[in-house]
Amino acid sequence: MEDTQSKSDFRKVAINKVGIKNIQYPIAITNRRGIRHNTVGTFAMYVNLPHDQKGTHMSRFIEILNEHKDDLTLLTVERMIESMKEKLDAEQAFLNVSFPYFLEKEAPVTRSKSFMNYTVRIVGEIVRDSVDTILEIDVPVTTLCPCSKSISEYGAHNQRGLVTVRVRFNDHDAKNPMDIDDLIHLVEQTSSCEVFALLKREDEKYVTEQAYENPVFVEDLVRDIALSLSSEKRITWYSVEVTNFESIHNHDAYAYIERDKSNSSHAHAFESANATSVAHS
Amino acid sequence: MEDTQSKSDFRKVAINKVGIKNIQYPIAITNRRGIRHNTVGTFAMYVNLPHDQKGTHMSRFIEILNEHKDDLTLLTVERMIESMKEKLDAEQAFLNVSFPYFLEKEAPVTRSKSFMNYTVRIVGEIVRDSVDTILEIDVPVTTLCPCSKSISEYGAHNQRGLVTVRVRFNDHDAKNPMDIDDLIHLVEQTSSCEVFALLKREDEKYVTEQAYENPVFVEDLVRDIALSLSSEKRITWYSVEVTNFESIHNHDAYAYIERDKSNSSHAHAFESANATSVAHS
Amino acid sequence: MEDTQSKSDFRKVAINKVGIKNIQYPIAITNRRGIRHNTVGTFAMYVNLPHDQKGTHMSRFIEILNEHKDDLTLLTVERMIESMKEKLDAEQAFLNVSFPYFLEKEAPVTRSKSFMNYTVRIVGEIVRDSVDTILEIDVPVTTLCPCSKSISEYGAHNQRGLVTVRVRFNDHDAKNPMDIDDLIHLVEQTSSCEVFALLKREDEKYVTEQAYENPVFVEDLVRDIALSLSSEKRITWYSVEVTNFESIHNHDAYAYIERDKSNSSHAHAFESANATSVAHS
Amino acid sequence: MEDTQSKSDFRKVAINKVGIKNIQYPIAITNRRGIRHNTVGTFAMYVNLPHDQKGTHMSRFIEILNEHKDDLTLLTVERMIESMKEKLDAEQAFLNVSFPYFLEKEAPVTRSKSFMNYTVRIVGEIVRDSVDTILEIDVPVTTLCPCSKSISEYGAHNQRGLVTVRVRFNDHDAKNPMDIDDLIHLVEQTSSCEVFALLKREDEKYVTEQAYENPVFVEDLVRDIALSLSSEKRITWYSVEVTNFESIHNHDAYAYIERDKSNSSHAHAFESANATSVAHS
């Protein structure tokens, strides 16, 4: 049976990335405390293709996914990326995975328990034997506007906001197991108030007053989280963005900060997360 | 050239609806004041198919769309539906169209002008020579929680909410031209405060205080809008639903009311909008 | 602390549905063979509210969700709905849940194993002590056009299609455990060819030829699945819809059939799934 | 009235981007032939904020949007970005706008006319007085698999694909008016077959056979479009990505190429579109 993909190509055009995307797969991930979470991942997996090769072998991506689906951590994602590079005979390999993640939380006064959902993403690539991974987390929060509070006789507009934090850790010890829960707590403590799935009346009084006492502009929140991430020694690079679903508008307020704490200039393509943000935010 | 679609079918299974969906088309609509809006519609167009007919002729839907795209009103949508029934030789025909609609609004204090976006839908069908159309509008608003205000020392959680109103008018005079603007105003006046694209500091003080003075539960807002729609004589049937993007949760609060003011029982399939809501809200 | 929600309301407007929506929760479901699947559910939970009651108690929905999250079947969803009715002191209660579901499949020739994702929904309500549930499944398939095959010298346009089947079962024995896998197989066998996550070259030859040998219009596929569902005795009512993401257009082809096999007329609101489809498809 | 935003900030954290996003606005754009299109734009508008300034003035973005909404071209978008930099007293300014765009097309045999929809985006920024804009277009096409054709007795799997082209032009003459239509034609000519809203039977025979005669892997299509863009002298930089909605899978195939034809190294942040693609594709 003819192997069309393995033929030679004469157009002299190398392909930066080729592979599969939007594939859902059942996965298990393990957090810092060794607790296993069963969830559902959505993957993209690519490799580069030299100019003289006609096509890649798409089915191998699924085979690699199949092998690793039962234990995803930052470290095992790096293994997957190395495996993609090797089995597809490539120089570069790229993997993204996004999944819902849950934390059991207690309401602030009544201590009623419920689960809050967060979206977590791992973005990784290997270029010239060096693997690079970024951990991304979306954390919903409450934000209350300082300007609105300051100029109004009473009240202040507030809304649900979404914080996205992206971090690089400085070594493998910090990566396995992942620090998802700590990053979530760091963001939640910095907002006007954290959000919960279950609040009783006493809790609602608490969160309303706490938000009123802690007004933050989108600019304040992004700066305060940046300061917290700057002081975390295991983090070598971060970006943080905040989107406020303004209660007084039908559009959103947005702020973005990025900082490379290592002074070295990384060779990797996705170093400039600013680029990402310009083109797509 | 063989016409496979026109062949006979022997399975004895009639098809309720067959046609095209998710087609975007440039359209012009005309509102009550005769003002023309250029916008972009997303259409679904279906007819029924008797048990003995193998297929429908999909290209005819596009031809009908092509003919009517430059002047959409509730009345011309009814013409399109009649045309679908006739040209596709059907007993029933169904059409949905959804489009962004804009109103120029003035900020409450500074009178600064800006455009606010709303989503409008027209849903129509013809069954046994009787055409039935529903006008649907999504209106974003601010809602402030009365419980949060009442139990807290200061502040009150508030958020963007989305109101969806669906109405049937009692005759053609009311339908042409459509009353989109009036329905939007009716909803906006009933909320804690309307939302704007452009607010300066004086305006922000105004909307903050107005929302604090007009707290509404999702239950209050849905009831108040229901009362307003009940008192509108040209409206014979309505439903109203409110979704609050709660600032203290990562989920939404929801309420739904439906009322048939005519005592007659309509024969039409989509009479029970409740059904719609159960299955999909 | 004041209980604003429990106050009386004097507007004399009953609310059809009030509650929470778009809440994600970690869940476990059990299929017909007793196999447990850990997945993520997105819920909507509503009750009716009499005209003289000011508000509902939103936190109770989460408490009920919390209690049942570890074992969802059609039967336990019915328990949840009964519990909502009781704990919120309502006459009617409504619940929707949607979740990704996975089946391990073997490629048709090489028998390579991989997981395919499907979306499953359970939609239930209780009205006057009678609980009613519908099981919905989205099944992706390949469809190949008979007209294109018949009129062309070679080739035939084909594409990914999405089949949505909704069924009511005739008694509780059929509901517990759920028949998700059987419904998926029923749909997959009726299409031009089923789809897989992992196909090697021998498999790709097989699925290409199988699709060419089994051309189906959107009308054929919806009818063939309807016939299969008609012959399943445990199913008392069904609807089936097919959406083809046409490879030759930028819009979709669509067909819908619904059949009530019981001759009794159900009192329940969502009986007329046709209504659902008119308004939202 | 206190101007909280204008206060000083002492955290010493500069903000890369702050502003508004997800705002819909009615716009008019003008294409190369001077033809005006009324459509609907979705905007994001940001500026940088120095470390010692507390907040930006969000309402000014809307004022700038208001001024320019009636005439958008690549050149007027550059004016908007310069205006943002000036009126918000910033060093950097960023703007994205996305809108549906329509071309009237004739079916290949019957010459029946219909409108096809495309999504167009303009992404621009100003850094240190140098404005940089990218034009992006999404073009739906048909792709037919060469491997499937080659190994199968008859038939070949094919599907709708989506091509996204991003280009930088070499000077202002090329930018005003924009070359949207030419870029669309360039992509459509390179695919297995272009797609249409309206095809009659004779046309369907034509497009089926044309696709069968022109099989392309996702790798072939991305390379052929890259070659076409390389030979366009007015284009100094481009990227092209193809996503195939595989008819035999429930996931997509993907390929990406990027090339900077100027040998100079641009200073601009979004130069490395590769970065964008790693993180978000």
Considering the chains and any ligands shown, give keywords for the structure.
nine-stranded antiparallel β-sheet; Urate Oxidase; homotetramer; 38% strand; 8 helices; alpha+beta; 281 residues
Characterise this structure.
Four copies of one chain form a homotetramer. With about 280 residues, the first copy, chain A, is α+β, with helices and mostly antiparallel strands. The first copy, chain A, has a single domain, classed as Urate Oxidase, CATH 3.10.270. In chain A, about 30% of the residues lie in helices and about 40% in strands. Chain A has eight helices and nine strands. The first copy, chain A, has helices spanning about 60-70, 75-85, 145-150, 170-175, 180-190, 200-215, 220-230, 275-280, and strands at about 15-30, 35-50, 90-105, 115-125, 130-145, 160-170, 195, 235-245, 250-260. In chain A, strands 1, 2, 3, 4, 5, 6, 7, 8 and 9 form a nine-stranded antiparallel beta sheet that branches. In chain A, a hairpin with a 5-residue loop joins strand 1 (about 15-30) and strand 2 (about 35-50). The first copy, chain A, is elongated. The interface of C and D includes residues 155 and 197 of C. Strand 1 of chain B pairs antiparallel with strand 9 (about 250-260) of chain C, so a sheet runs across the interface.
Task: Offer a concise description of the structure.
The structure is a homotetramer of 281-residue chains. Chain A has helices at 59-68, 74-87, 146-151, 172-175, 180-190, 201-213, 218-230, 273-280, and strands spanning 15-30, 36-49, 92-106, 113-127, 130-144, 158-169, 193-194, 235-244, 252-260.
